[in-house]
Amino acid sequence: MKASRSPARLRLCGTAAQRGANICRAGFAVAAMTIVSGCEQNTFVPPPPAKVEVAVPVQRPFTRYLEATGNTAAIKNVDLVARVQGFLQSINYKDGAFVKEGTSLFTIEPDTYKLKLEQAQAAESGAQASLRQAEADFKRQQELVQRQAVSQATLDTSTSNRDNAQANLLQAQVNTKIAAVNYGYTNVAAPFDGVVSAHLVSVGELVGASSPTQLATIVALDPIYVNFNVNEQDVLRIREEARRRGMTPDDLRQIPIEVGLQTETGFPHKGKLDYVATTLNQSTGTLPVRGVLPNSDRALLPGFFVRVRVPVDQVQNALFVPDVALGSDQSGRYLLIVNGENVVEQRKVRVGPLEGELRVIEEGLKADDRVISAGLLRAIPGQKVDPQLKKVEAQPAAAK
């Protein structure tokens, strides 16, 4: 049987337990104070500068172009008409066919006009015979007058008959020519190489009755015109460049032009400047200009809207940067440049056309500038960056 603990022993145990708890609380307090004092001693360490890719502008020759929108027009476009009256006898081509100059296209009742030609030729032959007889009679009367065998009045009559015979012959010859021309009009031929439209009349129809009847249209497609307009500022710039280079008006007509359709890439069609108007259109402030292009494959049809560009001058050391490096705001286009202290600067620039993935920079950029081409969102003007130099490949120009 266990003896029960005395009250004095229980008091000693309670006092020891409380003493241990107090020691634990004191230890936690010291540890907490140590942690707090350690936090107060830490300092802020800024993050490293953002890494960005930079590139030096590419230098290469660049041709500055004048670009415009124009439309194509046929160099020759003629309505084929019936110039004599008669029934249409035959149509000698297929609608939309390409024909050579002189090809017979329509035939208009030729028999009647052939008979009229033969009739005129016969009348001409009779007039020639009458003239021969009148000349022979004149010579006889002239000899008889010299021998005083006939009177002068007889010779005058013979002279008059001869002159009338000559006039009749001339009239008969003219009638023959008119009949021949009318007979030629019965065959409507192609005046030049071209494509003939669908016929507008049918076989057996009476044509040319009261006025010339249109039969079809023939269009020359090779070469072909391109008409476009140049604004006044571009005209002044081109004239100044031509004056600087000593170009004459004839030299301007040798300037090449390049044309592209709306669905084509680049400007695959080549030609030359053909005509420049002498006066500016005051209502539009533009100068009409025309070019001419070979069109043997008939890729260009009259009436097409086309893109036109004309070389104005050439820059030997133009600066190119990746187009993705350009930004824009309300004041225009800009580039982010890393200066010698690796600080970002915002530079306003004037841009030119795009060639491939590179954009021409015409103003605001130097050849040794480091342009940020990647990591633009991490580059803030006025802050330092860690530039990583990357070489930009000099890509070929866009398709011409």
UniProtKB/TrEMBL annotation:
Residues 77-218 form the Multidrug resistance protein MdtA-like barrel-sandwich hybrid domain. Pfam families: Beta-barrel_RND, BSH_RND, HH_MFP_RND, RND-MFP_C. GO terms for biological process: response to antibiotic. One of its GO terms (molecular function) is transmembrane transporter activity. GO terms for cellular component: cell envelope; plasma membrane. Signal peptide: none annotated. Residues 317-376 form the Multidrug resistance protein MdtA-like C-terminal permuted SH3 domain. Residues 117-186 form the Multidrug resistance protein MdtA-like alpha-helical hairpin domain. Residues 223-313 form the Multidrug resistance protein MdtA-like beta-barrel domain. It is found in: Cell envelope. PANTHER family: ACRA/E-RELATED COMPONENT OF DRUG EFFLUX TRANSPORTER, HLYD FAMILY SECRETION PROTEIN. Belongs to the membrane fusion protein (MFP) (TC 8.A.1) family. This is Efflux RND transporter periplasmic adaptor subunit. It comes from Bradyrhizobium archetypum. The lineage of its organism: Bacteria, Pseudomonadati, Pseudomonadota, Alphaproteobacteria, Hyphomicrobiales.
